[in-house]
Specification:
Layout: E1 4-8, H1 12-24, E2 28-32, H2 35-44, E3 49-53, H3 61-71, E4 77-81, H4 86-94, E5 99-102, H5 107-140, H6 151-163, E6 170-173, H7 180-190, E7 198-202, H8 208-216, E8 217-218, E9 230-231, H9 233-236, E10 241-245, H10 252-264, E11 266-268, E12 275-277, E13 281-286, H11 290-295, H12 301-307, E14 310-313, H13 324-339, E15 345-346, H14 348-356, H15 362-376, E16 381-382, H16 389-392, H17 408-422, H18 427-434, H19 438-450
Parallel strand pairs: 1-2, 1-3, 3-4, 4-5, 6-13, 6-14, 7-10, 10-13, 15-16
Antiparallel strand pairs: 8-9, 11-12
Helix pairs in contact: 2-3, 5-13, 6-7, 10-12, 13-15, 17-18, 18-19
The chain binds adenosine-5'-triphosphate and magnesium ion.
Magnesium ion binds at residues 180-181, 245.
Length: 452
C-alpha cells in the first residue's frame, strides 16, 4: 500500500514540486497551504509523514509540529527551511522534528530521509502496539505473571486454572528456562491455598542426606550436627503447597519417603519415631525425561505415577515465537527502569535477529539477552550490535528486501551491500558472486559511503 506523505507550504510551486517528486518515488503525496488545513488533514486521515515549511500565515509550521508531536508522536515531521533560518530548524528538531531539509530541496536527500523516517515510524508504531498489548494482558491476568499470547500459552493458562482448585499432584515438565517455576506460582495463585504456606525446595542443590532432613526434618541427635529438633519443609508447608524443583535429581531412599507422603500423607522425621500427618499439595518440576530415567533405573515408576496425576508440559520458546516480542518488550521495560534508561524498542535488524534465533535457553536466555542489550545500548533503540553475538549472528543475512517502487540505483545498492555482508565483508568473493569486478564493488561502496 502507498504511504501518505503530507507536504505543507504556503508557496504553491514548492508544494507541487515536492508532491510530484514524492509521487515519482512511489508515495501518495498530499498537500496543504497552511498549518490549519494540515492539522485537519492529520486528524482526519492516515498520514504517515509530514514535511512542513516553518513560516506560513495562519498556523505556523512550528505550531503544527508541536500539535502533531504531542498528539501523534510516531508521525515523523521533517521541516523545510530557507537560507538564514537554520536556527529555526534546530529549534524545530528540539521540538520533535526528525530532521530538516534546506530549500532548494535535494531530491536524493529527500528520498533517503523519507525511507529512514518511515522505517522509524514503523518501529515506533510496532513498539507502542506491543506495549499496549502487554498492558492489556497484565490487566486481564490477575493471578499469573506468565506472559504470552500464543495458543500454546493460552491453553497452558487455561489448564492451570482448571487444575488449580484440586489437591492433585502436578508434574511440570519442559526444557530449562521455559518458565516451570512461574507455572508452579500460577497454580498456587489460582488455588484456594494461595494464602497458605508455599514452600519451594531445589532438590538438586542438596546431597541425599541433607535433602531428606530438609524435606522431613530431623530430631536432635539423629546425626552429627543435629543439635536440636528441626521441622522439615513438608511440616512447614502444612495446609499449603510444596514445590519440588528438579525432582529428577532425588536419590532412591528419599524417593521412597516421598512416595509414602504422597500415598499416606504421613512421614517421620529423620531419626524420629512419631508419625506426622500432613496436608500438602505437591507440585514437582523437571527438565529430565522421567520415563527415560525409569528405564535406566534412576527413578521409581510408582513415584512417577503418583506425581504425574496432572502433567503440564511447558513448550519451548521456539515453538511459540508469537510470544517473543511480547516477552522482550516486557523485559525491556523492566531493565530500562532498573538501569534508568530510555529505550523505545528494537531496530528492524535487531528484531529480525531475535525472531530468527532458536533460543535454546528459552525465556531465561531471552531475558538475559535483553538485559545485556539494555546495558550495551547507547541510543534510543536496541541495535543489532547490542545483542549477544550468538543472537546477532541469527540476523537474516541471506536475503535483501526490495519493495516495488524501489529505484534501480537503490536496488543495486541493497544487493551489493547485502552480498558483501553475506560474504562476511570479503569483497572479492562478493564480486565473484555478483559477476562484477572487485574494483567496481569498491568504487560503489565508496559512493554509498559518500552519499547522505
Ligand atoms: N511466560 C513468561 N512470562 C514472563 N516471564 C517468564 C515466562 N516464562 C519464564 N519467564 C521468566 O524466565 C525466567 C526463567 O523461568 P523459570 O525459572 O520459571 O524457568 P524454569 O523452567 O524453571 O527453568 P529451569 O529448568 O532452568 O529451572 C524467569 O526469570 C521467569 O520469570
Ligand atoms: Mg526452575
Amino acid at each position: 500500500m502507498k504511504r501518505n506523505i503530507l507536504v505543507v507550504d504556503d508557496e504553491k510551486y514548492i508544494r507541487e514540486g515536492l508532491v510530484a517528486a514524492l509521487e515519482l518515488d512511489g508515495y501518495n503525496g498530499l498537500q496543504a497551504e497552511n498549518g490549519e488545513i494540515a492539522w485537519k488533514m492529520v486528524n482526519n486521515q492516515a498520514i504517515d509523514m509530514v514535511i512542513t515549511d516553518l513560516r506560513m500565515p495562519d498556523m505556523s509550521g512550528s505550531e503544527l509540529l508541536k500539535r502533531i508531536y504531542s498528539t501523534y508522536p510516531t508521525i515523523p515531521v521533517v521541516v523545510l527551511t530557507g537560507h538564514g533560518t537554520i536556527e529555526d530548524a534546530v529549534t524545530a528538531m528540539q521540538n520533535g522534528a526528525v530532521d530538516f531539509l534546506t530549500k532548494p530541496v535535494n531530491l536524493d536527500h529527500l528520498s533517503v530521509l523519507i525511507k529512514r523516517s518511515l522505517a522509524g515510524k514503523d518501529m515506533a508504531d510496532k513498539n507502542r502496539e506491543l506495549r499496549t498489548e502487554l498492558e492489556n494482558l497484565k490487566k486481564k491476568s490477575g493471578y499469573t505473571s506468565i506472559i504470552g499470547k500464543s495458543q500454546k500459552v493460552l491453553k497452558l493458562i487455561e489448564t492451570i486454572q482448571q487444575i488449580a482448585p484440586s489437591r492433585a499432584s502436578v508434574l511440570i515438565t519442559g526444557e530449562s528456562g521455559v518458565g516451570k517455576e512461574l507455572v508452579a506460582d500460577a497454580i498456587v495463585n489460582y488455588s484456594d491455598r494461595r494464602d497458605k504456606p508455599f514452600v519451594k525446595v531445589h532438590c538438586a542443590a542438596l546431597n541425599a542426606n541433607l535433602l531428606e532432613s530438609e524435606l522431613f526434618g530431623h530430631v536432635k541427635g539423629a546425626f552429627t550436627g543435629a543439635i536440636a529438633d528441626k521441622k522439615g519443609r513438608f511440616e512447614l508447608a502444612d495446609g499449603g503447597t510444596i514445590f519440588l524443583d528438579e525432582i529428577g535429581e532425588i536419590d532412591p531412599s528419599t524417593q521412597i519417603k516421598l512416595l509414602r507422603v504422597l500415598q499416606e500423607r504421613e512421614f517421620e522425621k529423620v531419626g524420629g519415631e512419631k508419625t506426622i500427618k500432613t496436608d500438602v499439595r505437591v507440585i514437582a518440576a523437571t527438565n529430565r525425561n522421567l520415563e527415560e530415567e525409569i528405564k535406566k533405573g534412576n527413578f521409581r515408576d510408582d513415584l512417577y505415577y503418583r506425581l504425574n496425576v496432572v502433567n503440564l508440559p511447558v513448550p519451548p520458546l521456539r515453538e511459540r515465537k508469537e510470544d517473543i516480542f511480547l516477552l522482550a518488550t516486557s523485559f525491556l521495560n523492566e531493565f530500562c527502569k532498573e538501569n534508568k534508561k530510555n529505550i523505545d524498542g528494537f531496530s528492524n535488524e535487531a528484531r529480525s535477529a531475535i525472531a530468527g534465533y532458536d533460543w535454546p535457553g528459552n525465556i531465561r536466555e531471552l531475558r538475559n539477552c535483553v538485559e545485556s542489550a539494555v546495558v550495551m545500548c547507547r541510543g534510543s533503540q536496541i541495535e543489532l550490535g547490542d545483542l549477544p553475538p550468538a543472537v546477532s549472528r541469527a540476523s537474516k543475512t541471506d536475503s535483501v528486501e526490495i519493495e516495488l517502487g524501489t529505484t534501480m540505483d537503490e536496488a543495486e545498492k541493497r544487493i551489493i551491500l547485502g552480498t558483501v555482508a553475506w560474504c562476511k565483508g570479503n569483497k572479492s568473493k562478493a564480486a565473484d558472486v555478483l559477476g562484477l569486478g572487485r574494483k567496481t564493488i569498491i568504487r560503489k561502496m565508496q559512493e554509498y559511503e559518500a552519499a547522505p
